[in-house]
Design brief:
By secondary structure, this protein is an all-alpha fold. The protein has 2 domains: 96 residues, RNA polymerase sigma factor, region 2, helix turn helix motif (Rna Polymerase Sigma Factor, Chain: A), CATH 1.10.1740.10; 150 residues, Winged helix-like DNA-binding domain superfamily/Winged helix DNA-binding domain (Arc Repressor Mutant, subunit A, Orthogonal Bundle). The chain has 11 helices and no strands. The protein is elongated.
Length: 252
């Protein structure tokens, strides 16, 4: 792979910015299965009305971007770099689609506000019944709101910074991030790590299996011996709690 990339880079330099079309095509063909695999896994996390082929197309854009910007001196494997670019491109495409209903976004913000208010008054994490009471709804309605929030999980950290921008680590990495950007990412990771440690043991486990092991909710349900709907509920509550605490951190 390194020889192929070096060959690609040499061709690029010789042509003064014009890449070798033949080599580019060969590399795209070679890594197309990786794009389809990543797109397929991400498709399992979004509503069925989102076309898998649309995600694959976005992933190909990410792959091409990886081919253009990869530098062997980064000290990482090309596949690792490409995976990051492919996922980033697919997430960007999902954001452009704006497929999450406005009513769901509104419910999520209401729950976040209720959690923040209760946490401030009680000096502890509120339970489900307390959040439902704060929202002036019954517990069943609250759980339905949580269930509908599942779709926002993939884009869960959007627009929570003070300036409304997307956190740096959810975007495709730039060719040369500034020291300030690197510091912000490090700070945000530390904040998220602290918040995750405050989740319940079950919430931590579900989040770890979903984001780090990249299991689907159905797969996690099989592992933990619970229903998929229950896992979805645990996951959504954990994400909303994470979002509310991040909002509190950046607005505080």
């Amino acid at each position: 792979m390194k020889a192929e990339i070096n060959k690609y880079q040499q061709g690029y330099e010789i042509e003064q910015g014009k890449m070798d079309p033949k080599l580019r095509e060969e590399l795209v063909v070679k890594y197309a299965p990786l794009v389809r695999y990543i797109a397929g896994r991400m498709a399992l996390r979004v509503p069925p009305n989102i076309s898998r082929e649309e995600l694959v197309s976005a992933g190909i854009v990410g792959l091409l971007d990886a081919l253009d910007k990869f530098d062997s001196e980064m000290g990482i494997k090309f596949q690792t770099y490409a995976e990051h670019r492919i996922r980033g491109a697919i997430l960007d495409e999902l954001r452009k689609m704006d497929w999450i209903p406005r009513s769901v976004r509104k419910d999520i913000h209401r729950i976040e506000d209720a959690m923040l208010s209760l946490n401030s008054r009680l000096s502890r994490e509120p339970d489900d019944a307390e959040v439902a009471q704060e929202l002036d709804i019954d517990i069943d309605t609250y759980y339905k709101m949580i269930s509908r929030a599942q779709g926002v999980s993939l884009l869960s950290l959007d627009k929570i910074m003070p300036d409304g921008s997307t956190p740096a680590f959810t975007k495709q990495a730039s060719a040369g991030p500034s020291p300030f950007d690197a510091l912000k990412v490090k700070e945000l990771k530390n904040v998220i790590s602290q918040i995750l440690s405050e989740l319940s043991e079950k919430e931590q486990l579900v989040v770890a299996l979903y984001y780090y092991e990249e299991l689907t909710l159905k797969e996690i349900a099989r592992v933990l011996g619970l229903t998929e709907s229950r896992i979805s509920q645990i996951h959504s509550k954990a994400i909303i709690r994470l979002r509310s605490k991040l909002r509190s951190y950046y607005e505080g």
